[in-house]
Amino acid sequence: MKKNLYLFSSFCLLFISGCSSIDVLNPKGSQGNEQLSLIKLSIYIMMLVIFVVVVLFIWFVYKYRARPGYQPSTHQENRNKKLEITWTVLPFILLFILAVPMVKSVFGEAQKDRSEAMKIKVTASEFWWKFEYPAEGIVTSQELHLPKGKRVVLELHSKDVIHSIWVPQLGGKQDLIPGRTNRLALTPEKSGIFQGKCAEFCGTGHSYMRFTVKVDSKQDYEKWLSSMKKDQNSSQSLSADESEGQKLFEKNCLSCHATSGLTAADKKGPNLADFGNRDHIAGVLKNTPPNVKEWLKDPEKVKPGSHMPKREGLSEHDYTALSHYLQTLKK
Amino acid sequence: MSIPFFNTHIKLASDIIAANLSIIVMMIAALIFLTVAKKWKSLWMLISTTDHRKIGIFYIAFGFLFFLRAGLDAMLMRTQLAFPDFHFWVFHGEKYNQVMTTHGTLMIFFVAMPFLIGLMNIAVPLQIGTRDMAFPFFNSLSMWLFVIGGVLINMSFVLGGAPSAGWTSYVPLAVDKDIAGNGTAFYAMGLQVSGIGTIMTAINFIVTILKNRAPGMGFMKIPLFTWSALITSTLILLAFPALSAALIILIFDNQFGTQAYDGGNGSPVLWQHLFWAFGHPEVYIVILPAFGIFSEVIATFSSKRIFGYSSMVLSMLVIGFLSFMVWIHHMFTVGLGPLANVVFGITSMLIAVPTGIKIFNWLFTLRGGSIRFSTAMLFSLAFIPSFVIGGVTGVMQAVVPADYQYHDSYFVVAHLHYVMIAGTIFGAFSGFYYWWPKMFGYILDEKIGKWQAWTFIIGFHVTFFPMHISGLKGMPRRTFTYLPEDGLFELNFISTMGAYLMGISVLLFAWNLFFSYRKKEKSGVADPWNGRTLEWAVSSPSSHMRWPRAPLIRDLEAFWHEKERGDGTLIPSTKEESQIFVEKPTILPVLLGGGFFTLSFGLIFEVLWIAVIGAVGILLLMGWRSISFERNIKLYTSKQLENAIRKEEG
C-alpha cells in the first residue's frame, strides 16, 4: 500500500510538472504563482480521493460480480458505524487542510497596501480593451505594457456589458461590470509577451476580445513610456503611398481613432498610437499589411460583432495605401 | 431573403431553411404515421389523460425530443470548435451563440428536468402504494406548461433568432440592442411558463408523498427515490420563485425598458444574485432524483439492501439545505469582497461531505452483494467514478483564489458536464432502462443497451476530460473559435471526436427504442430485475386502477420483504376506503397550455391583442375549471373499485 501511494504521488508530480505548456500551471506572476500553489494542493488532495474511490470501486465490482458458482454471504452488512464515521470525519480534515491556505490567500491579497502600487485604468467595451496610465497621461488599446517586478492595480470599468479580464499566466480574472469599479492586482515576475482574454461572455465578438500583455524590464518600459508621451511617430518621413494613406485616414478614420497616445487626444474608438508595433489587428489577425487590408474591407467578417463600420467608396489602391500608412504608426 | 414577422424579420438563410425543412418533414411524417396506423383516437386519449404514468411518458418523450435538438446543437458547436479559426456553415459568430444558449437552456430546463420529473411521475406513486398523484389535473397542466415552454424556446431559432446571451442570460447583455430578434423575450417567457408548471409539480409531489403513502410506510420506510423526489420538490418550491421573480424583472427590462438591471440606474449584479439563488439549488434539483435512481438500481442489481439508508436520507437533506447557501460561488470574480467569497467558498466545500457519504454508501452497497451488469446497472456503476471526478473539481473551484483561474474557462465547462451528464443523464438513462417495463410493458434490448452505455460512457470522457486541460490552457467558455497559436487544436479535436461518439450513442438509444418496440419482449415484465420496492409488485405497464385496498407496508423494501418473509404478494390493508378519487380524462390542461402559448406569443412579438386573447382565454378556462371540476371527478369505494378492476381485467 505504501509503495502504491509513493508511485501514485510521483505520478501526480509528473502530471503537474510535465505541463509547462499549460498557461495556468506555468505562471509568470506572483498572483499566478500563489494560485498555482493552491491548485496543486487541491489536485494532490483530490487525486487521493479519486484514488481511494477508484480502488474500492474496482475491488468491489470485481470481487462481488455475479458469476457461476459465486454465492454471496448470507450476512448482508447494511450499517457499519466505524466506517461511516470514518468517511464523515476524514473529508472534514481534508477540507480543513484546503480551507486554511485559501482563507490566508484571500485575505492576504485583500490586505495589501494599494497606495504603493501602480495604477492603470482598464475600460472594456464590445469588443476591445483600453488601458489608461493616469500618472503618465497616456492611453493604449489592445496592448497592456507592464514593468517587470512592479505591483500593478488595474481599475476595471465597463462601457456596455459585463466583461472579465484574464491573463492566465499572470493570475486569475476579475469582472468588469457597468456601474461598478473592481480592482485586480497583478505582479509580473518575468518579462515576456502574454495572452489576455475576455472571459465573461459579452456578445457576438466575445471570442475575439483579446489583448496582449507585454512585460518589459524597468528600462525598456520607461523607454516605451517616454516614446508614447511624444506626439510624433518614430518614422517621420512618409513615402508617397504612405502619405496618401495618411490623407485617407484623416478623412475616413480620424473621427473615431486617435494616432496620438496622449489621453487628452483620445477618441471613442481604439487608440492607434504605436499600431505598427502591435502583434494583432483587433485581437484577431496577425498585424501585416495584407491582413490590415482584409480587416478594413470588412471588419464584421473578420471579427463578428465588431462595431467598426465598413467604409464605402474606397478603392483597392486606397486600402493598400491605408494599410501601409497604419504600419508607420510606431513610437 | 428577409420576411417581416410582427416586430422582427426572419432572414431565410441556409440554416433557417434547413431547420424549417426538417420541421416540415417531421410534421408530415407524424401525420402520416398517425393516419396510417390509425392512432388519432389514441393520441386524443393520451392528450387528455390524467394518469400519472402516461403523463410521465409525455414528460420523457418531449424531454427526449428536446434532448435530440439540444444534442444537435452540441454537435454543431463541437464541429465549429474542431479546428482553430474554423468557419463551419454559419456558426462562426452570432449563430454559434444562439445554439450555445439553446443547448444550455434546453438541456437544463427541458431535458434534465422532464427526464427526472417524468421518472418521478412514473415511479413515485407506485413506490408509495398510491393510485395516482394527489392532484391529477394539476399534474397534466404542469406537463403541458412544460411542453409549451420548451416549444417556445425551440421555435425562437426559426422565428427571427434564438436567445444568445447564454443559458444564464446575464444582463445587461441579455437586454442589449445587438441581441438578434426576440431571443431574450423567448427565453424569459419560455422559462416563466414552464417554471409555473414546475412549481405546481413540486406542490403535487410534496402533497402526494406526505399524504398518500400506503399504510405502514413511515418516513424511514420511504424508498430513496421517493425521498429524493420529496427533497427535490421542496427545493423547487423554494428556489423556482426566485427565478420567476428574476424573469419578471427581466421581461419588464426587456419589453418595457424599466432598467432594474441597468448598470446606471439598477444593478446587473442583482440578476446574478437572483439567478444563482435559484440556479444553485437547481443543480441539486436535477442531481438528487438521479441519486435516488442510482440508489434503487445499485441496490437491486447488487441484490442487496442499500448501505446506510438513514445516512443516505440525512445526507440528501443536508445537501438540500446547503444548496441554498452556496450561490456566491458562481460569482467569485464579481468582486463582492473577501469575506463573502471566503464564507461561500467554505460552505461550497462542505457539500463534499454529504456527497462523499453517499458515494461510500453506494460503494459499500456493492460490497458483499452479487452484482448483475444490466444496462441500467452499467450506467449507475459508471456514474460513481465519473461523478467523483466532477465532484472533486467542484471542491477545487471552491478554493476562491484558484477559482479566479478556473472561472468562466473550459475547466468549468468540463466540471459542469461531469456532474450534469455523469450524474443526471447517466441517472436518466439508468432509470429508463430500469423502469421501461413499468412504463410500456416490455423490456429495452439489453445488447443494444450495453453498446449504447459503453459508447456513451467512453464518448463522455473523451469529450469532457480534455476540457479540464484546455481550460487551464486559457480557453474561455462560450467562445466560437480559438486561434492557431493558442495550442488548443489537439484538445478540441479530441473533444469533438468524443462528442460524435456520444451522438452515435444517442442514435443507438433511438434505434433501441424502435427495435425493442417491434420485438416487445413481454415475458416476466412485471418484475424483470427481481425488484425490491413496491412498484415491482404491480403489473407492467402499471394500470391506472390498482390497489383496491392499499397495501400494508412492513419494511423499507416492501416487496422484497414479502418475497423473503411472506408469500411474495403484498398484504392488502383491511381499511375500507369510501372516497377513492379518480380524475376523468380532460382536455382543459391542453387548452390552458394553448392560452399560455398565445399570451407568450403576444408578449414576445409585442402584439397586444394576441396577448390579451391569451390572458382572457386563460382566465375563462380557469373559471370553467372552477365551476366544472366536480363533474370531472369519479368517486369509488374500495368495493366498487375492486369490481371495476375485475371488470376491466375481464
From TrEMBL, chain A:
It is a multi-pass membrane protein. Residues 294-319 have a biased composition (Basic and acidic residues). PANTHER family: CYTOCHROME BO(3) UBIQUINOL OXIDASE SUBUNIT 2, CYTOCHROME C OXIDASE, SUBUNIT II. This is Cytochrome c oxidase subunit 2. It catalyses: 4 Fe(II)-[cytochrome c] + O2 + 8 H(+)(in) = 4 Fe(III)-[cytochrome c] + 2 H2O + 4 H(+)(out). It is an enzyme of class 7 (translocase). The lineage of its organism: Bacteria, Bacillati, Bacillota, Bacilli, Bacillales. The keyword Disulfide bond does not apply. GO terms for molecular function: copper ion binding; cytochrome-c oxidase activity; heme binding; oxidoreductase activity. Subunits I and II form the functional core of the enzyme complex. Electrons originating in cytochrome c are transferred via heme a and Cu(A) to the binuclear center formed by heme a3 and Cu(B). GO terms for biological process: ATP synthesis coupled electron transport. Belongs to the cytochrome c oxidase subunit 2 family. SUPFAM superfamilies: Cupredoxins (SSF49503), Cytochrome c (SSF46626), Cytochrome c oxidase subunit II-like, transmembrane region (SSF81464). The chain crosses the membrane at residues 41-62, 83-103. Binds a copper A center. Residues 284-319 are annotated as: Disordered.
Automatic annotation (TrEMBL), chain B:
It is a multi-pass membrane protein. Pathway: Energy metabolism; oxidative phosphorylation. The chain crosses the membrane at residues 16-36, 57-77, 106-129, 141-165, 185-210, 222-252, 274-294, 306-328, 340-364, 376-396, 416-436, 448-469, 489-514, 585-601, 607-624. GO terms for biological process: aerobic respiration; electron transport coupled proton transport; respiratory electron transport chain. It is found in: Cell membrane. GO terms for cellular component: plasma membrane. It catalyses: 4 Fe(II)-[cytochrome c] + O2 + 8 H(+)(in) = 4 Fe(III)-[cytochrome c] + 2 H2O + 4 H(+)(out). It holds the Pfam family COX1. It is an enzyme of class 7 (translocase). InterPro entries: Cyt_c_oxase-like_su1_dom (IPR023616), Cyt_c_oxase-like_su1_sf (IPR036927), Cyt_C_Oxase_1 (IPR000883), Cyt_c_Oxase_su1_BS (IPR023615). Belongs to the heme-copper respiratory oxidase family. This is Cytochrome c oxidase subunit 1. It comes from Fictibacillus marinisediminis.
